[in-house]
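Last lecture ended with a question: if I hand you only a sequence, what can you say about the shape of the protein? Today we answer it with a concrete record. The protein is Sigma-54-dependent Fis family transcriptional regulator. Below, first the input exactly as provided, then the predicted structure, then a couple of comments.
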Amino acid sequence: MRILIVDDEQPLRDSLRYLLEAYGHQVVEALDIQDARSVLRARCRRIDVMLLDLFFQDAPDGLALLEELTADADAPPVIVTSGTSAVAHAVRALKLGARDYLTKPVDPDELRMRLAYIEQSIPSTHADTRIHSDADCIRFDKERVLVCRSPAMKALLRRVEHIVEQNFPVLIQGETGVGKGLLARLMHAFSPRAQAPFVAVNCSAIPPELAEAELFGHYKGSFTGASTTRIGLLQQANGGTLFLDEIGELTPALQSKLLTALEDGQIRPIGAHEPVDVDIRLLCATNRDLAQETRTGTFRADLYYRISTVALTIPPLRERVEDIRPITEIIVNELRHSFNREYATLDPATLRALEHHDWPGNVRELRNVLVRSMVEMNGIDLHIDDADLHPGDNGAQEPQHPTRDVITDAIGPDSAEILTLEEIERRYAQTVLNRLGGNKLATAKALGISRGTLRRKLEETD
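The predicted structure:
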């Protein structure tokens, strides 16, 4: 199960996390009521059970949250925790709908027994049957999450909500790395075909000479090397969804054959004497301007009109800054488990750096930056700055060792102020950073210090 721990005591959250993960559960933490509300409101992660402390800074704020949850039919079952002196509040919590309560310190065996009892009452499937376009995140296919906190993504999801149950083709457009494949999987997961196959094909990864056999299949002996009969990808998707990523990479001959298959609802594998019926919902994706390519003749206009009954465009990450933080938190949580790290936190400076980057590679680039930072991480904090976001850029100019005029700029030409050594170092580092165009890697090299030391000196201004 996925369990939300709501408690303002870090040691208690740590011990509960360790215990629950040892039992095989997944854990989400909230350090106060407002944090818990955000987790529940976002719906990025399904919460099966909430462990809720009643008291936050000597106030029974947990009761206020319980009162809010009584009106929410989708609220998870709640186990409240309290000290022995708060029994009266625990009783009130049960009247408000809490499933159970435990006194602190929590007994591990007692907790395990209560959770097992609740787990038996949870339905085996938690899949939503429709898209909630007002949510901050859409969770599907067990662990896949589409973040839609930004207005641009909410507008896109409202369109998806209206067409997801239809059967006509959809063309998904957007820059490389924006998540076209993820949106295609979401559309399949919430469609009437959700229990049938989802077959994804990267058209750019199939050699042209093999593409026809891969897509349409072939019979044994139909060409040199065809030692067995192979069912094509279109036939494998029968009854479900076929997702053709980078459809613009198909050759003109394959474009023609695909058009015929879509119009007739039939395919003819290589070497076959009779056509084979197929029933698929087609989703396509491209980062190219196919409309323009129809005018230049590089993409068939009739196929374009067939596959673009509805065209959806995913905005680039730089146009949905509100999504960067939740996407980052989701990726970091995944990486934390992959790298077997108990903790991985993001400081405010790192989040600001991520939100101010323009992300030409979109979510794919963001993931790569976070993976690289996780590999190099020391301690529990992920630190990312401008140099990490531009690993191949050492600055347009070679770092020059600052001279006396830099010191004058830092301290002031006629300053009579007595400055501490710490303040002089801070001003000096900031002035060099300004001189080098904000390039922190070049500044660190010029000063002969590490990026971490530079970061700490600059943060002394905050």
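Comments.
1. The chain has 20 helices and 18 strands.
2. The two ends are 41 Å apart (CA to CA).
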